Fold:
Amino acid sequence: MLIINYEDCTGCKLCVNNCPFGAMFFEDGRVQVNELCGLCGACVNVCRRGAIHIERKQASPEELAMYQGVYVWVEFETQSGETKPRKVVYELLGKGRVLADRLNQELVAVVLGDESVSGLETLAQFGADRVLLCQHPLLAEYSTDGFTNVICAVIAQKRPSVLLYGATPHGRDLAPRVAARLKLGLTADCTGLDIGEDGQLVQTRPAFGGNIMASIVTPYSRPQTATVRPNVFNACTPDRNREAAIETIPVTLSKAAIRTRLVERKLTETENAESIENAKVIVAGGRGCQKEANLDLLRELAGQLDGALAGTRAIVEQGWIPHTLQVGQSGTTVGPELYIAVGISGAIQHIVGMSSSKTIIAINKDPEAPIFKNADLGVVGDGLEILPILCGLIAMEKEKLIEANRQGF
Amino acid sequence: MKIVVCVKQVPEVTNVLVDPINGTLIREGVKSILNPFCEYALDHAVRIAKTNPGVEVTAITMGPPQAREALLRCLELGADSGILVTDRKFAGADTWATATTLAAAIRKTVPDFDLILTGKQAIDGDTAQVGPELAEILALPQITYGVNVAFSNNLKRVQVEREVERGYEIVDASLPALVTISKGEVVRRVPSLQELIASRKKPIRVVNALEMDIPEDQLGLKGSFTQVVKVFPPRQKKSGQLLQNIDPEKAALEIYTFLKNAGFI
Amino acid sequence: MHEIYSHPAPFAEFAAVKCVQGYEHIKADYSAYLTDESKISSLPFDFLFFPRSEAELAAIIQEMARRNIPMTFASARTGLVGGSVPQKGAMISLERLDQVEAVYFDPLAEEWRIRAQAAVSLKSLASMLQHKKFALMDQSEDPFIQRTLAQFKADPNYYFYPPDPTEMSASLGGSVVTNASGARTYRYGPTRSWVRGIRVFLANGEFLDIPRGKYFASPAGQFVVHDSKGITYSFNIPDYNLPKTKCTAGIFTAPQMDLIDLFIGSEGVFGVVTRVDIGLLKHEDKLSIVQFLESDEQAIELTQLLRENKHLQLDFLEFYSVSALNLLRERQAREPSAVGMPSLPKEGCSALFFEMSFDPRSNTMDFSELEETLSKAGASLDRSWVGYEPRELDRFKVFRHLIPETVNEIIAERKKITPGLHKLGTDLAVPDENLVEMWHLYRDGCNASQLEWLAFGHIGNNHIHVNILPRDIDDQNKGLALFASFAQKAVALGGAVSAEHGIGKIKEKFFRMMFTAEQIDQMKRVKAALDPHGLFNPGDIFGD
Structure:
């Protein structure tokens, strides 16, 4: 409930002008609020007279204090026949370590899987104090029901203060299910995590397609849960000597509890293919590539730079590339060393998915394309004309090197 | 059989501008649209209804009164009726409170539903949470990231093709169930003039908080576990060099030199 | 009043103006300036200037005039007839004169207006109006600008600038000197109808401020210009009658005409427009409708019925011939996503595409007039596409532009086999009553010559673009001969040979078809009075 104290209000309209939702207006000589109000608090922050309040629920500190520890869900992936934690898990451990130290609490890795899980020792090396191991044959494959049951059980037993998931397809399938069951606050797709002065987890995420950032707290429910974007946080340098206690949690799970059934799996990529999430170099195309066949130019450049091809939502929707290669708000967040954007105008939804790239080169015909604001090198021109020449130059350079090697230099 | 499609009206975020001075959203002139993923969900529902006679499609939305426009769009695209869940008490709802309210509204208006479809996420919040939370509250099995939905021959199960990280899988669940949709047809459907005219004669039912049995403390902001404490503009990266009015040959050479100097070649 | 005074601009140092010297240098580093959308190439020229202000522009004009160097003006270079492609001398790119200076309400006309510099693009203008955000003005400290801007923002309505030439990256100034038109000309008229005032620099380096409705030709058809040094230039306006159709061929004239109309559509041969005041119109939500029909003839019949029904106010009325849709259908089969629309109906259908005001929130839209008119023509309402959300309108717009794009692609492919092939397209408009006759001429002529052809475009203004896709040089020659006969017929019917593209450097032949030598001399006499040394835009309209 937004409450305006009209005795303190001077009618300066700062709040009206700052309302991100356009929910405040000045009528009949006073500031009023309509149903568009999202109770985001922008007006409270801007009011110089402190005339605006938001009435929110309070929870008792005693209740909250019963919950301790920063927990990280360890998601596995299978690559080249080996099942090991995903890269984002190490990023979560890196950030989780900082949060746990700030809170002076434990960092715990929660592992769900069958007998085949491996790589547990790395969890400690990357910062975990303890590993909770939940093993069951039915946990070999991810299932919404199976994993929700087990995570809920862990929370009920262990009462963590914070639980983090990678904002991966599975993470985003699982986290809301758990949150709904246990009546927990959940913040999606965080790009910033911090501990506030009052010990609350401050979760920052892009909203409105990345046009604004919102900081969110979960003041009166525990654990505070969040999914976190891959490629945003850094993993810490592993300490090979660090070890953690492995605690096995007994799991009861029956087949009947899992209500969905996998009928068939059709993989469009081989298991060994690097996902764009982990690529060092990405060449990405947008609508400006005009047609599917033109993506071959991008593929060639990607090949020369040992990189991967990716693209915008627009070209995924056109069916030119599979959804697995989509960069952006509704696709994958990437953070390569080099990102070359060809024919991408740079809608904010795309920018949020690639802005953590170390170096960005953008080629676009429109000099006003927003992508240029993010580019280290921007070229106003037609990528379809430039790329063949560029590939030629790189090929020549490579030939020179090969020639030089052959001649024994 | 009954399919409920949960939809959301969203600002056309591709058009949202941010005021460079105070960092707030410029809402002037930004139109609202039916969230694209919700439109995909609706398309799937209508397609099922067309191939299975007797299937009824209801579009439901929670939002301010103007969210009715999103329902109108659904009716144009083939939904049979619409439900507008609106009340000032819903303001400030986070995903949990939204899912709780939607669940109550569905129990109230279409208690005998067989399938619920939602978009995988809304393009304004991008949380992708309401679908799974709604499934949990209604105790339904969920299948996320659906791209194709079909009923089994005996109409007891639903089979869904869904996107996974390296491709697709086909998953099946017993009905009733909830499926979130991430893709529709390559080209979005376009209604005909006939459908547009007919849509304005289809019913839209309005439901408010009073009509549903949810305690007030589960509604809107009071029912939300998360609270937004600060809104601010994203950090702008300092832009680098911009080359204009140059030939493709010269442009290629500039990029090549840049790549070489940065050690990528 | 038929007498007007020109004023000197503030002083600026010529030497301080950004200038690229030498053709080799321009060619190497500024190659984009060697052509425009006509794709014709410039001849060597010596200077490329980028004035930052009107003062700098005046300094350039004076210096060039002193050295007797001709000047070609350009801003967005989106013209289709090479108007801004230099043939010699200097090129002056106005691209830095790109500020919106004011938005204000004219109480007499009860109209919101924008005052902007010539190089403001129509695209950015549209975006500023859509969001009511004007970068420079928002920070202005001028109390007048601040006050009117605040009023504009407080107005609950949104406004738009009605002319919408297809090419939205075009500049405002360019669209004024070419009197640009587009689909919406059907309802709102060409650019001319929305220009409320201009500032124009003459070859003497001074400028005229011409608001609409102040300076009119004397009953004898005379205008007199006095400059600040006491020199007087006087001239008579031409006395021919222009077609009553859309027309961009030749200089505008009318008894006791407004001086402003002499410069609008003059392709910059009399002066260079640096600042424009334009009128705005209240924005309304629109519904786009594509109605599929059984044949080209049915489309023409429906066109006439839609025009006759005065209860229906359409923003535009566009045509796709059966052959045009066949082409799109083939493209759709090849690249479904490029067309961006659901599957086109079966072979052998044509379509009309129109737009009307629409309240998406209303439950009680009355479509009865439209339904009645459509059924009178035998059209079926379920064979149509409609859209009104902004992103849907954009999608329809893309579809609208798809034909020329597809034709260009096909020609480009054929060119690889037969160099020298090029697209043949008409730009003819005829009066309403001759639509059917003209259509028969197009259809029968193209079919008799066994050419591959299609037709699309502004049928509401009887301005159909006929495109011939030559398969070989023989086809091309047949097409050229056919087009000359089409143009002659259009002139005979009282139509225009160039309804929207202008004359520039490539349509002089058609121009001479429409005007007699004496009439052309009348135009040249106006030019000789205002630009006695022929320094502005050499080669445009009149050839060399």
Remarks:
- The first strand of chain A starts at residue 2 and ends at 4.
- Chain A touches chain B through 113 residues (CB under 8 Å).
